[in-house]
């Protein structure tokens, strides 16, 4: 995933010799019992750097990057879990047909 992120952040450097790429200052906050965590980290390459905010969701014991807008009050832990279960259920029914 790091190579994918790097390609999106620094697209003009894909055809050149790779420069040292670092991810630093990773910090995550998780409320007790929550299935989500808010993380920040700094991407650095040569003289370019920026801080990124990521939302992680715990699923089946693994922390996965979530692409849902964290400012959307309608989508919280229980809603995300319900949406995931509904999607999986629908997919199972479609595969059975």
Strand content: 35-45%
Average of per-residue pLDDT values: 76
The general outline is flat
Using the coordinates shown, work out and report the CATH topology: Nuclear Transport Factor 2, Chain: A
Distance between the termini: 34 Å
Would you list the SSEs in sequence order as H and E? HEEEEH
Structural class label? alpha+beta
Strand line-up of the largest beta sheet? 1-2-3-4
Instruction: Compute the number of structural domains.
Output: 1
Note the total helix count: 2
Supply the CATH superfamily name: NTF2-like, domain 1
Question: How is the secondary structure organized here?
Answer:
Blueprint lengths: L1 H8 L11 E9 L6 E10 L2 E12 L2 E5 L10 H20 L1
Antiparallel strand pairs: 1-2, 2-3, 3-4
What does this structure look like?
- The protein is α+β, with helices and mostly antiparallel strands and 97 residues long.
- The protein has helices spanning 2-9, 77-96; strands at 21-29, 36-45, 48-59, 62-66.
- The protein has a four-stranded antiparallel β-sheet with strand order 1-2-3-4, with no helix packed on it.
- A hairpin with a 2-residue loop joins strand 2 (36-45) and strand 3 (48-59).
- The two termini are 34 Å apart.
